[in-house]
Amino acid sequence: MSADLGALAQEALRVAVESVLGKLKEGKRLSTEDIFLLYLATISRELDEIRKEIAETNQRINETNKRIDEIGKRIDEVNRRIDETNQRIDTVVQELNRRIDETNQRIDETNKRIDTITQELGRKIDETNQRIDAVAQELGKRIDETNKRIDAIAQELGRRIDETNNKIDKVAQELGRRIDETNKRIDGVYALLLDIQKLLMEIAKRG
Predict the structure, then answer these.
(1) Radius of gyration of the chain (CA)
(2) Angle, to 10 degrees, between the axis of helix 143-206 and the axis of helix 32-138?
(3) DSSP letter, residue 140
(4) Distance CA 14, CA 5 (A)
(5) Do residues 73 and 42 lie in contact, with contact meaning Cβ atoms separated by under 8 Å?
(6) Do 81 and 200 touch, CB atoms closer than 8 A?
(7) pLDDT tens per residue across span 121-178
(8) Which DSSP helix (H) or strand (E) runs through 26?
(9) How far is residue 175's CA from residue 49's CA, in Å, rounded to a whole number?
(10) Under 8 Å between Cβ of 146 and 129
(11) Is 0.70 topped by the overall pTM?
(12) DSSP characters for 79-115?
């Protein structure tokens, strides 16, 4: 209802202003009321322009708020991706720790086996020496033959000890190689994590 009244008032003002302009064209003298009508028409036009500017400003504010909301959504999405990446990093670190623990357990088991082999060889050597002493005491007449047998046994034991040492060296080399491979994999994972972090930072900057 107020809008209709405003439209009617503007229409009445327009008609009155046209009447005043008609007087000016005819060269008639304007009254105080005529001058007031012209002044009122000028104020009305300025008010219309102000209303338009306010409406445009409100529209720009609404558009800015929409953009801010969109940026907020993008930031939330980036934060979500960062959280997911952190969770993946934690999972990878846990898996690497588990594999390192397994590798350490294998090294401990290998060391135990080496100790067992060494003890067994020592025991056999001790038993052999005891047998040699018993044979030497008991078979004095067969010292030469016993010495030959002792030399043969010593050579065999030396060969077996060399073979055992070679096996130990191979096991140590294999373990060292596996540890080096594990370290390379760890370095590769850390390098990948750094690349992911850089990528996320670039995405965050672009957002």
Answers:
(1) 51
(2) 180
(3) G
(4) 14
(5) no
(6) yes
(7) 688 778 877 877 776 677 677 878 878 888 888 898 888 888 888 888 888 899 899 9
(8) helix 2-26
(9) 85
(10) no
(11) no
(12) HHHHHHHHHHHHHHHHHHHHHHHHHHHHHHHHHHHHH
